[in-house]
Design brief:
The protein has 86 residues and is an alpha+beta fold. The protein contains two helices and two strands. 22% of the residues lie in helices and 16% in strands.
C-alpha cells in the first residue's frame, strides 16, 4: 500500500463541490486510481430470457456508457469487455 501511495499514477486529486445544494465551496479531494486492472469471471446467461447476442451487446455497451467507480462523470472508470469461449 505504501508503494502505491508513493506513486502519483495511482492518485487522482481534484477540487470538488463539497455541498452541491449550496453551490459554492470547492475543496480538494483525492481518490485512488488504478489505470490498468482486469477482472475475470464466469457468467451464466439465461438465453431464453435475454438472448446471447443481446447479452454481448449489453456487456460491451456497459463500460462505454457508464463505467464503474466515483469518477464516471469525469470520463474515467470506463472499461472494455472481452467475451471468451463458452
Amino acid at each position: 500500500i505504501e508503494k502505491l501511495w508513493a506513486d502519483p499514477r495511482y492518485r487522482f486529486r481534484t477540487l470538488v463541490n463539497s455541498n452541491p445544494s449550496r453551490g459554492k465551496g470547492k475543496v480538494p479531494r483525492m481518490r485512488p486510481i488504478f489505470p490498468e486492472w482486469s477482472l475475470t469471471l464466469d457468467v451464466v446467461v439465461m438465453t431464453e430470457a435475454i438472448g446471447w447476442a443481446n447479452f454481448c451487446k449489453v456487456a460491451e455497451l456497459a463500460g462505454q456508457m457508464e463505467g464503474v467507480g466515483n469518477a464516471r462523470k469525469l470520463g474515467m472508470g470506463r472499461f472494455g469487455v472481452r467475451i471468451g469461449k463458452l
